[in-house]
Amino acid sequence: MEHREVIVIGAGAAGMMAAITAARGGAKVTLIEKMEKAGRKIRITGKGRCNITNTKSWQEFSTHLHPNSRFLKHAFYSFDNTETVKFFEEIGLKTVIERGDRVFPLSGIASDVVDSLVNEINKLNIKVLYNTNVKDIDLTEGNIRSITAVSNGKRISLMADAFIIASGGLSYPLTGSTGDGYKFAEKCGHKITECFPSLTALMPVGYSSELIGLQLKNCEITLIAGKDIVQKEMGDLDFTNNGIEGSIGYKISRKAVKTLISGGKCSVSIDLKPAIDIETLTKRIEKEITELRGPFTSLLLQKLLPSQAIRPFMEMNNLSSDINKLLRSLDISGLAEILKNWQMDIDSFTSYERAVITAGGVSLDEIISKNMKSRLVQNLWFAGEIIDLDGDTGGYNLQIAFSTGFLAGKSATAGK
């Protein structure tokens, strides 16, 4: 029996999964990677630990997808998060479930995820062309006839029955994600929905460098676009040299960035005491003042804030550093209100150089969700970050890659 030939462009999470699935299905697979090794981006995800997926049901999982969760439903049920964990365990990667239902390699080392995938690729005798940059696509009568690439300085032409573009987006370009796939998709007639960085740092106006390194646990952040509240998130917030990050900082970044690039204004409100209402907080402050009366009143803010946050909190809210002067100029309920509503206007955001994911991409309207096949080109499939589908932080984006990669690999092998 003649084996169907499949070419996969991009050896990231989606591309490697597509290649493995196609090879297991009996296809003769060639995997093309422009960098010198596979999975460069995987190696740095999750702060080098790699949050592979999470264990949430589709009903909850789908609420963390943008802009159209329904598009992923068939791919998810074809290869869901339980299948992902099972797959990695079967190829030799032990996993562990941590806080927030997040799944990590037991070793805590992201490169172990890549190594397990590469080992499986080698076992399946998949041909991998590293240092190979696809330059052009030869499209004839609605089919890709061949692709032209430069491999280790030599120009080559490759033909196949099916082609899968899984070359990623624009985020972390040093890992090889430079948007090449968008050009290939456009050459094939596909529309590219506007791309922008997501899961990225937001820089507030007047940001204090003294905040760098501060981590706030269990706080609430509210995103305001113009005058409208558009999102609220509860969890951990990190302050870095790039601004506001951490799980909830990343979650609001998608809408914040979209607002800013559209020319709008946005701000955030941080509730440092979300577990109690303003009346209860006011009474607590009154009690602390009574117990600390006299010269010890200066210790009040240490009771209410992390020490690292005190001075920047005062400066960014134009409050006197003299606690007694502060209490003379601001009643106690006013102080409580600011603690529950620390407002920051957002000035800018970190672009693709450190954004976790690219929002936007190949239009979902032009991809068949049941098989990840192009509606425009008969022998073309898409998988991963290149498509206009992204998720929140917490394993969602890698699961998108694994689910769409699996489905694209399976469908391309079957030719439908």
Brief overview:
This protein has 416 residues and is of the alpha+beta class. The chain has helices spanning 13-24, 45-48, 58-61, 73-78, 81-90, 110-123, 180-187, 246-261, 278-292, 300-304, 307-316, 323-329, 332-339, 396-414, and strands spanning 5-9, 28-32, 53-54, 65-66, 95-98, 102-105, 127-129, 132-140, 143-151, 154-158, 162-165, 192-198, 202-204, 215-225, 228-240, 243-245, 266-271, 342-349, 357-362, 367-368, 373-374, 380-382, 390-391. Strand 1, helix 1 and strand 2 (28-32) form a beta-alpha-beta unit.
Tell me what the structure shows.
The chain has two domains: 5-197 and 358-414, 3-Layer(bba) Sandwich (FAD/NAD(P)-binding domain), CATH 3.50.50; 201-350, no CATH class. It has 14 helices and 23 strands. It has helices at 13-24, 45-48, 58-61, 73-78, 81-90, 110-123, 180-187, 246-261, 278-292, 300-304, 307-316, 323-329, 332-339, 396-414; strands spanning 5-9, 28-32, 53-54, 65-66, 95-98, 102-105, 127-129, 132-140, 143-151, 154-158, 162-165, 192-198, 202-204, 215-225, 228-240, 243-245, 266-271, 342-349, 357-362, 367-368, 373-374, 380-382, 390-391. A six-stranded antiparallel β-sheet has the order 13-18-17-14-15-16. It has a five-stranded parallel β-sheet with strand order 7-2-1-11-22, with helices on both faces. α1 (13-24) packs parallel to α6 (110-123) and α1 packs parallel to α14. The longest helix is centred in the C-terminal third of the chain and has 19 residues, at 396-414.
